[in-house]
Amino acid sequence: MGKCVMIVDDSSSVRTVVGIALRGAGYEVLEASDGSDALSKLGGQKVHLIISDVNMPGMDGLTFLKELKKQAVFKFTPVMMLTTESAADKVAVGKAEGARAWMTKPFQPEQMLAAVQKLVLP
Amino acid sequence: MTPLAERTLQALGLQTAREVHPVGVSHATERVTELSGVWQRQIDATSEHGTVSVDELTKTFAGIERQLAQALELTEQAAKGLKGNGAMSGAVASANARLNDVMAMIQGAVEANHAMLATVTEAVNAVRELHQTAQSVERISQMTTLLSINARIEAARAGEAGQGFSVVADEVRRLAAQSRQESVTIMQRVARIEEVIQQAADSAEAQRERDQDLIARSREDARQILSELGESMGQVMSASDGLCEIGQQTRMSVAMALVSFQYQDRVSQRLTHVRDSVACFAQSLAGGWPDEATLAGLDAQLLASYTMPEEGRTHRNEPEPDQSGDGLMLF
């Protein structure tokens, strides 16, 4: 069984693009449309990496990150923010809340995969 | 109204339209307020339409990408089937082995004919010896005849005393003549047999030559067939490799097209920020035409709402810089 990566983004097209790149590299992919959907679908289930957008309707990415890290089971789960957001204050919040990386859109799949390989849990 | 728009209004010290008394609002302001509603609806509709369309396009391209992946997998399997474990060389080797078996069978038949020809040749030699023997018998009978003639002459000289011997000499001469006649008959029959056997030997020799020619031509045909078979299979493998390469290139093109669909997310965010600003502007009209400070506040709030650097650059009418770096920050 391959390593599991969750992609959280309100944009279906972004989820599709990320999903194709990850599945093509042998990862299993879980999809969620915002933070609440992600927490619900995770349900305490461990994954090897979470990739999350920041600006989403419902629960945004930074709130999701904060809520995620409250759960002990996700304490060491790496989270990469994948967003159009590049404001330094938002990046600083993400880092403070425990994000391991911040990648701005638009992204090239090979760049995203290279980052995933660096971050994904063994 | 989005939470951001509400926060903007609060920051500007404005109330929502519902809380403001309509008295004192000019007709022009009311019209602009109505228009701003139209703008917001148009922006929302455009954003929704763009999102739905791009989602559909993304799904379609994702489907094409999956189908390409499957087609590539099948093509690669076929190519491996031809190349892997020496399948193609094995097929050629198998055909070669079968052709060699057939050639060996033909060669065996030719050798059997050759052995038969050797037997016939032996028979010819035996008949020749028989012919020589018959000739010897004829010579002996001739000599015996001469001997009987001489014996009869001597018997005549002996007169009365040689009469008995003369009878014997006549009888010997008659037997010698009979023997000569038989040897002539034997020689005639042997000659006929020799002639028939020689015809058979000639025929076998001609057949042997034809067989040798057939074998030579069969070997050449087999070699040519195998060569053409190998060439055809090589062309199939080459075509298969070409298909794989084109498929990979097409898959990459589709992947690139999918990457381009990320613009929808950016367009959607830009439209949301503009829509929210229009909503804030409309709310600011509730108390009459906004003053300069309110408009400056709206401008500042719009700038603050941006999530992408290019939004700020567009706002300030600045040129887009060349993209560089991978936009990744590791913590």
Task: Please explain how this structure is put together.
Chain A has 122 residues and is α/β, with parallel strands linked by helices. Chain A has a single domain, classed as 3-Layer(aba) Sandwich (Rossmann fold). Chain A is 43% helix and 19% strand. Chain A contains 5 helices and 5 strands; from the N terminus they run βαβαβαβαβα. Chain A has helices at residues 12-24, 35-42, 61-70, 88-97, 109-119, and strands spanning 4-8, 28-32, 49-52, 79-83, 101-104. Chain A has a 5-stranded parallel β-sheet, sandwiched between helices. In chain A, strand 4 (79-83), helix 4 (88-97) and strand 5 (101-104) form a beta-alpha-beta unit. The longest helix of chain A has 13 residues, at 12-24. The radius of gyration of chain A is 13 Å and the shape is globular. The mean pLDDT of chain A is 92. Chain B has 331 residues and is an all-alpha fold. Chain B folds into 2 domains: 3-82 and 262-306; 87-248, Methyl-accepting chemotaxis protein (Helix Hairpins, Orthogonal Bundle), CATH 1.10.287. Helices cover 84% and strands 1% of the residues of chain B. Chain B contains 7 helices and 1 strand. Chain B has helices at residues 3-12, 27-83, 87-157, 163-260, 263-284, 292-305, 309-315; one strand at 328-330. The longest helix of chain B is centred in the middle third of the chain and has 98 residues, at 163-260. Chain B is rod-shaped. The two termini of chain B are 36 Å apart. Mean pLDDT of chain B is 82; it is low at 16-24. Chains A and B meet through helix 1, helix 4, strand 5 and helix 5 of A and helix 2, helix 4, helix 5 and strand 1 of B.
